[in-house]
């Protein structure tokens, strides 16, 4: 099959007439803080409320502070366009987010469950708010004893257990800055992240399980600490389900003391809970996201800014209520983990799961949601699609009657997946597709409890965010058109900056250089005729794997260990069965013994594909491993010799190629267009 490159370049967007909604909220969904706010400000519908929220941002964010029950001194919100700096929001505020996250003024008081942690083997731990407060106080005292203070960095290389939450909140309570990475990251991936920010205390999981794969991080400590010279203490955490177990006694690795969790906290168990009041823009988290080249970017966020932004989403948009049980399937390396922890501010219980989401079978997470009586169920779009492909029928075997909301993010949720959720998980639940990112630790586009849902769409822009979809000249695209997602005004979870970016040039280049004065997010979005949005993919070469941003260099760098690979381009492909990473290789001739490459099809031998996947998985992480690996006869490059990832991504996704004039070999794109057409035709229908 042949595809015309000219047609791809000139392809236009069309749209049908607005459809009727596929889901309409009932009174139980729509009641609550959002409806109350609409009455309070005289907004007759959500569109009017959103307009008010961006024309009177001080008024809106003041109400978020109030409705979320944030503890601290707010002062007068002064919001001016100061280059998107979050400090312009509440310059006189003094607060510590931990005081709000662990408040005991909700249903059940100090005895209310704060965290329920479950692992894939069935281990289960529940910590009440009072117990978590006491543990957080002990962590804070233990960190102070290590010399950690405001502005110092600590890090966690762990599974998704209760101890990581306690460690994080303990650090935030004394003004320290926290970074987390999931236990499946390889040592080099940990070094690439934590090595840039210089943590002094490192928390690690003693043992991590993901399906049939059991992993002990302690044997990897020596290699990891070799790239983290600032670490002066390692603490190992117990497995989920064992709150009193000492995961590893005392010892050392690479000359660094290693202490088990219980032994580390033992001298501090009676410490008082006394979070340190801090300015609104005090740094709390360093999250990692990848650009198109180089090491992962270290994004510095104010904890208070994230709290306020996520409170807007959780209290207003999503209607999370005190006493709710909130579950989102995530790892500690994804910003949805931070988002989930922030749900404690709603006086809700957060449910953690550590392990494979489909182990021992596809109903693992629906069973968990049923057993824990979850009210808010969060899944990745890829996981929902995997359940659909396996024809899993959770609704027939699991009582999901408590679930009011099912949320999906990480990648665009296809219309067929909306149908699947309503048919086989819950017909009553509102299905909300979310889109934002690590860059803002929140959403630009999502849903709202008062609003209907159209399959395949994100319903509304986030309150308080001046979201727009624009063309290359910065003009708002009409309904049915596709353009770049931007935000025209500051918001509280805008990053403070990038770690080490003293003059702000890297952050400016990442978000503000393309369109001066506005935030450019890097997503292509279609504005639908029903008033919603469809995410079409990234407008840069960054890859998005279930919400985790990965730079092409993170995948291509390990390939130096595979000599036949001369060059490589990894891109995200929106295939008929969901978004996947495709790795295109140009191999050096001859390819070598045992490597079979059919020049006509680009088919690689299974053993060579296995070698490439093993190298990437071991030197980066399993999430970096491409779904498809194929040999290409040539890779497009610019006249200056740079590989043209964006052109390949445009072609294989059927988008207009933004520019071919700057390419030295534009004819190379024809092969990619033909490959995408042939591959798509060979795939089973979704």
What can you tell me about this protein's structure?
With 686 residues, the chain is α/β, with parallel strands linked by helices. It folds into three domains: 31-96 and 303-538, Rossmann fold (3-Layer(aba) Sandwich), CATH 3.40.50; 109-276, Rossmann fold (3-Layer(aba) Sandwich), CATH 3.40.50; 551-682, 2-Layer Sandwich (GMP Synthetase, Chain A, domain 3). It is built from 22 helices and 32 strands. It has a seven-stranded mixed sheet, sandwiched between helices. Strands 5-4-6-9-11-10 form a six-stranded mixed sheet, with helices on both faces. Residues 1-15 and 240-249 have low confidence and may be disordered.
What topology does this entry show?
Layout: H1 5-10, H2 27-30, H3 33-41, H4 46-55, H5 57-67, E1 94-95, H6 97-101, E2 113-119, E3 124-128, H7 129-145, E4 153-158, H8 162-173, E5 177-182, H9 187-197, E6 201-205, E7 208-210, E8 213-215, H10 221-226, E9 233-237, E10 250-253, E11 256-260, H11 261-265, E12 278-279, E13 283-289, E14 297-302, H12 303-317, E15 325-328, H13 335-342, E16 349-354, H14 364-371, E17 376-380, H15 381-389, H16 394-397, E18 405-409, H17 415-424, E19 430-433, E20 435-437, E21 442-446, E22 460-461, E23 467-470, E24 482-487, E25 497-498, H18 505-511, E26 519-527, E27 533-538, E28 543-545, E29 548-550, H19 552-556, E30 565-575, E31 578-587, H20 606-619, E32 628-631, H21 645-652, H22 669-682
